[in-house]
Sequence to fold (683 residues):
Amino acid sequence: MRGIAMPETRGYQMRELMRVNMSDLSIKMEPLPAKWARYGGRALTSALVFTEVPAMADALGAENKFVVAPGFLGGTNTPNGGRLSIGAKSPLTGGLKESNSGGQAAHALGKLGIAAVIVEGKAADASARYMLVIEADKSAKLVRVDAWAGMGNYALAEEIKATRPADDHFATITTGPAGEMGLKAAGVAVSDPKGYPNRFAGRGGMGAVMGTKGLKAIVVSDKGLSYVEHADKEAFSAAMKVFANALTTHPVSGQGLPTYGTNVLANIINEAGGYPTRNFSDGRFEGVENISGEKMREVTLERGGNVKHGCHTGCVIQCSRYWVDKDGAYVTKGMEYENVWSIGADCGIDDLDAIGLIDRECSDLGLDTIEMGATLAVYMDAGKIAFGDGAAALAAIKEIWAGTELGKTLGQGAEVTGNAFGVAHIPVVKHQALPAYDPRPIQGIGVTYATSTQGADHTAGYAITANVLAVGGSVDPLSPEGQAGLSQGLQIATGMLDAMGFCIFVAFPVLDIPEAFGAIVDMVSAHTGDTWDANALLAVGKETLTYERLFNQHAGFTPADDRLPAFFKTVPLPPHNVVFTVSDADLDSVFDFVPETAAGLGIS
Amino acid sequence: MKVDVALFASLASFQPDGLSGRHTREFDFPDGMLISEVIASLGLPDEPRVIFVNGRHASEGAALSAGDRLAIFPPVGGG
Fold:
């Protein structure tokens, strides 16, 4: 345990790294290397993992590192600027992973002036469990918490709260039993403004990296800390007003998302014929009305639940909500579009209460709900349980608590489960399950799924915007033309947003309102006192992707890994009866900027 | 001619019967009715919208055919 005095200035140049070694239980502070002074969030987690983790390392071994970083603007009053990046070599994909979450932890770390927490090594005693406690004065310690082994995220949240002073203000980052078991679908839970462990860095098995190091929880107190100051406060305020105005006036971020939540997408993706149903065998789900965002809002209001709040302080979009049972009691976060789709349509389940219970079980176990819904759908496709049987699906997930053979198989995700039970159509890229948009009738998102450094990940380059939603222009979703360029531009921009710590939903107004992008440039300039322009911001996005792409190459990835499973190119999807037709040459063009960017960084 | 018209999210309340819970209604329109004419007859607000006919994007100037399904959304996003 050691205490460090707060620096007088908590500006971006004073940020530090906290290095926590689980093998010798040491904690050290280091200055952030000057070459990374413009990095935060995903740029920093990816640069650190690229630099410090051998590409061929065992993802669940002592050589891997678990890196937690607030965005560059974390800890400031930037609207929707409180996203958290968690990076490591992924036990699921085998590549460099950045898993992104809302919740309160990013701002807490940012206010402390911590650019990243790097957790390395591995507890010598496999039965040991530790909690990393970071106090508001930046002192930190590792506390032995063996009694919490195997505990679900919700009970864990209560135990942690009981260790804190009543007047504390803190955020938690935790892993459930799935992470402790090293399961590839294990995610990391981050506490929301009410302390519920319901925001997730879900994808890519980050919970397994955390859990197998012996780290059960991180607590960050920001009690009494104000927001980080800006170099030019007035200029920042002026830019912030422009930005916030764009977020609240654009119809998607100002009306659709706050009113209906992310699940407002269910009907429109279904209408477009791209709503993957019963393990990607149909593009429309007959039960969609029962699980749509409109229905969720109606039912939640009838039950007296909350239908509009931010997942983190400083959010002006407010797309979060809580899902409550028939008696009005909290069950889980208001399920997102992706969760409702994966557990719902992909499994043929049209009952929001059944979906909510499975979502809660996954969240408590600490599992990625996208991966687990896709896994259940594959399990159903194998005929082990019937499509549409929510009770059987919940019972299957509950097997994971005891670590039964079936439970551990399911917890490894869709690919392992599909292989174990002999399923022909396993919807994964780089071993990670496809999310909620079928790439056959929506080809732009197929380019992102195929090429992303992250494995199949919609957020990496959200081509649904121009393909379906008429945001940021229009590109015919059924044609292969223009999809590679669309995906490339979005992947670079997303790398930048993830580095800055923005919620990616700011992209809806930014893509349509030119002043909104200018406001980001102005906010970053005013915050740092340095000159930034659009190219400087997008350079951070390109550099982020370059670290990830090179790491993946070093780990053995080739162009053959940038492809969709064959059935997307050979089995037509109703109702449009189309297949994915973007050429391999187009897919291979998406990362054409990497050699030049790598040369600029002096890395290879 | 019979055409199904589905209105979603904030537009759902513009169905003539005003009932919530279901998005689609069957209408009987004159042959060759334009989407813009449907929009005018329903009194939809003069705001951006996303239009599909039979699951494909369509423009407001397009004419409908018997058996078509017309779906209209306000701008939405998420993911």
In short: The mean pLDDT of chain B is 95. Residues 2-73 of chain B form a domain with the Ubiquitin-like (UB roll) fold (CATH 3.10.20.30). Chain B has one domain: 2-73.
